[in-house]
Design a protein that fits this description.
Chain lengths: 130, 119
């Protein structure tokens, strides 16, 4: 089955992105395809390059980057959600003299059209975080 | 075949950016020619009250967008009758673009969807 995931909540404060990550691991282990993870609303905080939690805690951002590197899962951050909250793509940041390295490895910033594509092309879209 | 998307609004929308961000998904879905329905249930029903003034809380009023959704060919906007009754909201106090339906019909609408977005 082809599965996409939407995450609407920030990491650490809510369990949503943690649950989503475990769900994706289980799906991959069961032989399903995970096509895309779409980060929306406060979910964009999963993509902050400079998140540095203490070493003995879950490395949530790093874990997403690894998921992309290992399994080639497309990690997409919604552009309007991200800009509203101060997370800019490097090319945009350059234009407005913003911080150019805000986005963690393996993520890309794009529009809601990619969420719709995930809806249309996937057998299931599973949402985490209200 | 075009997929059917149902958007369920179950919480109050004012006070956060939620409403705006989720209506963006609704309009994008319509732009992709997907079949779109909105179902307001529980406290979500408050979002449909006429004459809302959101200036005092410095937030954007989503009512004009709600009332203009037919431009995007979104005409299936439903509210659960029982939720209205439980909150003593009379049908004439909500915007006319919305159709009150029974809870059974609301459940049917949700279960007939290919994808459900719940806010």
């Amino acid at each position: 089955m082809k599965i996409s995931v939407q995450i609407n909540a920030s990491p650490y404060q809510y369990q949503a992105s943690d649950s989503a990550w475990h769900f994706i691991q289980a799906a991959l282990l069961s032989g399903h395809e995970v096509f895309r993870v779409f980060f929306y609303h406060d979910g964009i905080y999963n993509a902050l390059h400079d998140a540095r939690p203490p070493a003995d805690e879950q490395q949530i951002v790093k874990r997403w980057s690894e998921l992309n590197a290992k399994h080639n899962v497309d990690l997409v951050v919604c552009v309007s959600s991200a800009q509203r909250r101060g997370l800019l793509e490097s090319s945009v940041a350059k234009k407005v003299n913003g911080y150019e390295k805000a986005l963690a490895d393996g993520f890309r910033i794009a529009g809601l059209g990619l969420l719709m594509e995930a809806v249309i092309d996937s057998d299931r879209l599973v949402t985490f975080g209200a | 075949m075009s997929k059917k998307l149902v958007f369920v609004f179950k919480d109050v929308l004012n006070g956060t950016i939620k409403a705006q961000e989720f209506l963006d998904i609704v309009m994008m879905a319509a732009a992709f020619d997907l079949s779109v329905s909105l179902v307001f249930i529980g406290d979500g029903a408050y979002a449909l009250l006429k004459n809302q003034n959101t200036e005092q809380i410095n937030s954007k009023n989503i009512l004009p967008i709600m009332q203009a959704l037919s431009i995007y060919d979104i005409n299936n906007i439903f509210v659960d009758e029982t939720s209205l009754q439980e909150r003593a909201i009379l049908a004439e106090r909500i915007i006319p673009q919305v159709t009150p339906i029974t809870r059974e019909k609301a459940q049917f609408e949700i279960s007939s969807a290919d994808h459900v977005f719940s806010f």
